[in-house]
Every structure is written in C-alpha cells, then in structure tokens.
Amino acid sequence: MGRIGREEFLSSHKLPLTVVLDNIRSLHNVGSVFRTSDAFRVERIVLCGITATPPSAEIHKTALGAEDVVPWQHFPDTMEAVAMLKNEGYEVYSIEQCEGSVALQDFPLQGGKRYAVIMGNEVKGVQQQVVDASDGAIEIPQFGTKHSLNVSVTAGMVIWEFAKKFGWV
Q1: Using CA atoms, how far apart are residues 140 and 123, in angstroms rounded to an integer?
Q2: 10 Å Cβ neighbour count for 144?
Q3: Which helix (H) or strand (E) holds 92?
Q4: Half-sphere exposure (CA, 13 Å, Cβ side) for 20?
Q5: Does 55 sit behind a cis peptide bond, omega within 30 degrees of 0 on the bond before it?
Q6: What is the structure's pLDDT at 39?
Q7: Which end of the chain is more exposed for a tag (fewer CB within 10 A), N or C?
C-alpha cells in the first residue's frame, strides 16, 4: 500500500499544523487524534492539562502505534502551550463556536505560515482564557439539534480541511 516507515515519517515534510488538545478526558479520543495526525503528517500534538500522554494502553487502542511516530509534548497548562506556539511564530486558533468565529470552510490559510488549532474538552470546550489568547476561532457549521461534535471527529474534519487547503489532498 506504499506506507512509509517510522524513520521516513520522522524525516518527511509535515503539514504546517500543530494540534493542541485542551483537557481531553477520553484516552480513546487522544488516540484517535494521534492516528489522524499520523495519516496527514501533522507536525506535532501538544497535550495539555488532564489530557493523558503516551505510553498508555487506552491511547494505543485507537492510535495503533501512531503515538510512537507523531511528535508530542505535554504542558500542565494550555496557556503555556499557547505562549510557546506564539513564540515559535504559529498562528493559534481555537476550534470553538463563539462570537467572531470563522466557518471552517471559509477560513483563509496563507502559504508559508504555520498554524496551531486547539481542540477543547468534551463537555466544556476550549477554556475561555485560551479562546481569548488565540488569534481567532474557527467553527464547524452544524445543522442538527446538537451543538457540538466529538473532539476526535472535529480534529479529523479540521485536519482534513487544512490538508486540503494546503494542497495535500
């Protein structure tokens, strides 16, 4: 199937995107984000607060080894991660429904820039202080009775859209 190995993955060109997980409770969601990040060669994942870190059998159950190839780091506080990313020159966006948010399909990417997207807690979403510290917010339009999506589904949709806009797919 033409899959690359670990060493080739680590040295390969990456999508200029970092995924930040802000206090994610479910280890299965964390594993799923690792697996999707592997599929699209995301630069790294930043795990914050209560978000579990590898090694973990529960993360591995859905990551299927992606946690061993996608670079990751952990911060006790998401605000520390946002500050680090901004220091590194990233544009940081919360994935959240809020005043002034831009629909995912309308979000304009600029070549040559690196982006970070923050996915929030399954119940509370992205912390308000983190939204406030972000460069903006992106939301996925929804048309049903619910006002949120599972965090791993959201991550998949956002990563896919970024890959598409950067011309990867």
Answers
A1: 17
A2: 5
A3: strand 91-95
A4: 33
A5: yes
A6: 96
A7: N
Alpha-carbon distance of 65 to 73, in angstroms, equals 16
- Distance CA(169)–CA(163), nearest Å, equals 6
Domains of the chain, each with CATH number or no CATH: 6-165 (3.40.1280.10)
Which amino acid makes up residue 160?
W
Q: Is the pLDDT of residue 40 over 80?
A: yes
Q: Which two tokens stand for residue 35?
A: 């697996």
Cβ 78 vs Cβ 23: under 8 Å: yes
Radius of gyration of the chain (CA): 15
Quote the pTM value.
Answer: 0.96
| Banded pLDDT at 95 (limits 50, 70, 90) | very high
Q: Which ranges constitute the DSSP H helices of the chain?
A: 6-11, 27-39, 57-63, 78-87, 128-133, 151-165
Q: Measured at the alpha carbon of residue 127, what is the angle toward residues 84 and 17, in degrees to the nearest 5?
A: 45
> What pLDDT sits at residue 102?
98
